[in-house]
Amino acid sequence: MAGTLAEKVWDAHLVRRGSDGAPDLLYIDLHLLHEVTSPQAFEGLRLAGRGLRRPDLTIATEDHNTPTLDIDLPIADLTSRTQIDTLRNNAREFGVRIHSLGDADQGIVHQVGPQLGLTQPGLTVVCGDSHTSTHGAFGALAFGIGTSEVEHVMATQTLPLAPFKTMAINVDGALPPGATSKDIILAIIAKIGTGGGQGYVLEYRGEAIRKLSMEARMTICNMSIEAGARAGLIAPDETTFEYLKGRPHAPEGADWDAALEYWKTLRTDDDAVFDTEVHLSASDLEPFVTWGTNPGQGLPLSANVPVPAEIADEGERVTAEHAIEYMGLTAGQPLREIAIDTVFIGSCTNGRIEDLRSVAKVLQGRRKAETLRVLVVPASARVRLQAEAEGLDQIFVDFGAEWRNAGCSMCLGMNPDQLAPGERSASTSNRNFEGRQGKGGRTHLVSPLVAAATAIRGTLSSLEDLDLGDDVDITTFDGTPLAPLDPRVPLQV
Amino acid sequence: MEKFTTHTGVGVPLRRTNVDTDQIIPAVYLKRVTRTGFEDALFAAWRGDESFVLNQPAYSSGSVLVAGPDFGTGSSREHAVWALKDYGFKVVLASRFADIFRGNSGKQGLLAGIVAQEDVELLWKILETNPGTELTVNLVERTVAADDVVVRFEVDDYTRWRLMEGLDDIGLTLQHEEEITTFEATRASWRPKTLPAKHLPPVEIEAARPA
User: Fold this and answer.
1) What is its EC number (chain A) (predicted)?
2) Computed over its alpha carbons, how large is the radius of gyration of chain B?
3) Are B48 and B41 in contact (CB under 8 A)?
């Protein structure tokens, strides 16, 4: 029977099919852990006298509340330190591999899996973090789970799951210069809404998606959850295989050949039917920014803040009124006039080497606007090392930005990197919820290129607003790979 | 887990859509390593506002939350469910829930019932007209009653059965352990393993310092 990619991966992991309304039981290939959602799960195992079934399919890293400064000193925040110590102790007790602060493979869990080559096509990947959907970029079925489910996977290496519906997101055409994969996903979320993907697994397809690098694909899959979908995936292709080959945990020799043969079957059959299809034209896209307090409240940068009185639906109108008030904006105000206090470049959405390279290319030889601060936080220590080997760190420092150690940082402000009440950010992260980046903080979600242009001008801006001169070729800023992070090349440190 | 058949308690109208889990419990409260004691963190950003519904005496002892659509979106944090439970909520009703939140609720014995939006509006009207009105949630019949007004809610059969029996998920799965072992034996040998660890040679990381 014809099937979609997601259905194929699901069926290949079926331990037992549920009957009488009971969910299916699915095998989990890779379980990623971090310090925030795992302590209560380990505690649960201990209380029930259960063990960790597959330490060899489990890996932990420290990311959510690690500091990005002074990482060689004891963590100042006592509760953060307790949480990290708890993870380290649990890892030791249960025999889990852990990448701690100071280790080259420490970093945001959704960067660590791919960079080690552990994230592969056709796997089921889970983590107690909703942005686990990132790994779907490899054609894996990857989704975030709650702490009870974390405990369930620890004890059984399986999860009971109710079936999902399938949605095709077809992105045709080619991205215009200055637009990126971040703008694609912000436009998708604005189109289908923060609840539009509920109950669905999204499959991103079409010419624009095929042209994207692995890292740009990760940005798209990462934000599937912001459209309400638990997972989003992209069929693996040569771009995927090229990214994986030679990574520490990628198969080798005959195993590579066997894996490749299987991976090539991982695509939606031509005659398969999706429950829903959505179409978007990439060639019409321009840089997108959010104006409100959920990721669906986004508009092209050339637009104005919405006028609530013009919104017909009462619930949406009240939500918009509330968002405009919280954000300290005026209805009808041009988005380009919004002045920014902090530019944050980082997170599991846009903290990868390609993001840093494209930002550095814009910032090179310039100075930041006097009125704002700029934080650049690489997604992992390995990304940081790579950037330093390429001299990007110097470009950021010369620009006036702060170059930090790896972690989730200001994306959710669990560490000291927070917005003050009323402070406004242009952030390459994934959520603009009230208080997300610090109590009272105001977040505008943007692409790395918009973040860079904004850092130069002080107000929300795109490359169009800059006089880039002849030495910068903006036609390469379309999310296509400049040069992928290559794990085989020794770092020049 | 406690068995759940019916519950009667004060209904709380939360007239907001898209209440994400960052609103239910902000990230700064996630640093605890225990499973309980999150009641103060519930809706922390709104609790300082006197007019917020839970700050009104008639609603403060509420145990049935009636919220706008797309409740529980965003972060997967189960702490959102713990915070609601620790505060005293047994039931959340809305016309749409985020998938992860709904799943987390079922596992923790918090009933997430799907009510048609027009019925949510009706319940809001009743609860706002007579603050302190008790709602009776009957899981057997899948109904919510406010005095003589009765509306229906949806919950999937499996979650309903588990809630009514008070069953633990892991225990249920481990009844099929043999099938898990059989499945494991069929997995392709090239599937990745985290152990033994393979990585590039260790490299010194320099600590960034405050500017």
Assistant:
1) 4.2.1.33
2) 21
3) no
Residue A13 exposed, middle or buried by CB count within 10 Å (0-12, 13-18, 19+): buried
Residue B176 CB coordination number (10 Å): 17
Q: Is residue B106 part of a domain?
A: yes
The predicted-structure confidence for A359-373, as pLDDT tens digits, reads as follows: 999 999 999 999 999
Please answer whether residues A390 and A412 qualify as being in contact, where contact means their C-beta atoms are separated by less than 8 angstroms: no
Q: What span, in angstroms and rounded, lies between the C-alpha atoms of A209 and A285?
A: 14
The predicted structure's pLDDT at residue A484: 41
Contact A315 B207 (CB under 8 A): no
Is the bond into A334 cis (omega within 30 degrees of 0)? no
CB burial readout A405-422, b (16+ within 10 A) else e: bbbbbbbbbbbbbbbeee
For residue B180, count other CB atoms closer than 10 A to its CB. Answer: 18
Residue B110 lies in a domain: yes
Which residue carries 């039931």 as its tokens?
Answer: B91
Rounded Cα distance between B107 and B112, Å, is 11
Q: B133: domain CATH number?
A: 3.20.19.10
Q: Which amino acid is at A150?
A: V
Label residues A254-266 b or e (16+ Cβ within 10 Å = b). eebeebbebbeeb
A127 is in an annotated binding site: no
A384 touches chain B (CB under 8 A): yes
Q: Which residues of chain A have pLDDT under 70?
A: 1, 469-493
Full domain range(s) for residue B95 = 6-170
Helix or strand or coil: residue B2? coil
Could you report the per-residue pLDDT of B128-139, keeping only the tens digit for each?
Answer: 999 999 999 999
Burial class (CB in 10 A: 0-12, 13-18, 19+), A322: middle
What are the pLDDT digits (tens) for A172-205?
999 998 999 999 999 999 999 999 999 999 999 9
Is A411 marked as a binding-site residue? yes
With CA atoms as reference, the chain B residue closest to A84 would be B31
* B103 located within any domain: yes
β-bridge mates for residue B138, sequence order: B6, B143
Per the structure, the count of domains in chain B is 1
Please determine, for residue B23, whether its predicted confidence score (pLDDT) is greater than 80: yes
Task: Give pLDDT, residue A470.
Answer: 59
For residue A477, give the DSSP letter: -
Torsion on CA atoms A433, A436, A439, A442, rounded to nearest 10: -60
Give the span between the Cα atoms of A366 and B16, in whole angstroms: 44
pLDDT at B34: 85
**What domains, with CATH codes, occur in chain A?**
292-476 (3.30.499.10)
Residue B181 lies in a domain: no
Rg (CA), chain A: 22
- Smallest Cα distance from A305 to chain B, Å: 19
